[in-house]
Amino acid sequence: MLGYRGCMSVRCLAAPLTVLALLVAGCSGGGATQTTSTTTTTTTAPTSSATTSAAMPSPLTSRSGTPTAPATPVALPAGTKWLAVPALKTRLAIPTSWKAVDLAALREQKGTPAFAKAAAGLGYTEQELADFTASGAVAMAVGPDAGETAPNLLVRSVGGGTFSDGEQLTSGSRGATGTLDAQSKATTPGGPAVRGDWHAPLDGLTVHASQLAVEVSGQQDIVTVAAQDAQTVKKVMDGVVASYSPAP
Known about the structure:
Number of strands: 12
Strand order of the largest sheet: 5-6-7-11-10-9-8
Strand content: 25-35%
Order of helices and strands: HEEEEEHHHEEHEEEEHE
Helix content: 10-25%
Oligomer: single chain
Number of helices: 6
Largest sheet: 7 strands, antiparallel
Distance between the termini: 30 Å
Structural class: alpha+beta
């Protein structure tokens, strides 16, 4: 998911900015045939759900409503802030300069003046914004433009089945033209995870992406980071691996 600087805001989504929407659409569930989509993606102003310091742990309730043990404190990596994901009861670290969006909350505003204002502020039609919020993503973060592009991050949950490795996780997103660069298993503060890093040509650019499937409360959450710069993708995803955890 990349945004051209040369267009109105990050409005030119017909090509690179569709990447993260493709990644999200491809994560339909472990072991299932994965497909891609051409929905557009968006950015908004930072939300108050992202905080800049780690909070002390408190008693948690699992997604099923069952009380769980208090969370272990998780330290923020240097240069990051918390992105809270209320819909999943989790949080993760993003760079301090990135903007955060609660897509789940924005989805509920469809058809309201607030939704229209958000779309206009991004240079989108309301339908384009609605198409993206319908993708299933529940949180998003957008970095500053770097050259012609803006790096991005999306979070969603996958119901049913699990991804066993990075190749399976990324296969539907990278498609026939993408190349898997590396895959690994990791342990995040929230639970075990699988990761896949890949790149693919897209309309004259090379898109680099990293996808992480974290098992939390019996289901996998999918985090996707994409940018034109491979080092940006690696740095941001390394921070996600170090911080993805239940919200206190």
